[in-house]
Amino acid sequence: xxxxxxxxxxxxxxxxxxxxxxxxxxxxxxxxxxxxxxxxxxxxxxxxxxxxxxxxxxxxxxxxxxxxxxxxxxxxxxxxxxxxxxxxxxxxxxxxxxxxxxxxxxxxxxxxxxxxxxxxxxxxxxxxxxxxxxxxxxxxxxxxxxxxxxxxxxxx
Length: 156
Ligand SMILES: [Zn+2]
Ligand SMILES: [Zn+2]
Prior knowledge:
The protein is mainly beta. The chain has a single domain, classed as Beta Complex (Metal Binding Protein, Guanine Nucleotide Exchange Factor, Chain A). The protein has helices at about 5-10, 40-45; strands at about 15, 25, 30-35, 50-55, 60-65, 70-75, 75-80, 85-95, 95-105, 115-120, 135, 150. One zinc ion binds near residues 18, 22, 81, 84 and 86. One zinc ion binds near residues 38, 40, 41 and 50.
């Protein structure tokens, strides 16, 4: 994909925690935007599902504050604001790069980042349904296509 003059001039997307002590910017398009239903994400956010805007670390600039870090599993850093407790990001190696997945609601304009897929649908809380028609993966996308498409209503 070639960079156009327009995308180079696009302002970075901004985000931060609830109290404003931590702020960041994302330049360019994210690698992917995904809804994750796994228990680690649910426990780490306190929400029934986490939505990630995942970028290469080279696209991210932390403009204010120092995020606190919790290692939720080997090689995975979950960061949060030490002042207000807002969960900020999931950070790990992915395909040889370091990626930073910001939780969607840390973005000032989450509407700009609609999700593309659901992952770890097998771990979804059985009463929790999202009525979109996105691809669903029982774990993570692999070599085959999605496990099913569309609303989860009627499934586990
Ligand atoms: Zn904060
Ligand atoms: Zn997860």
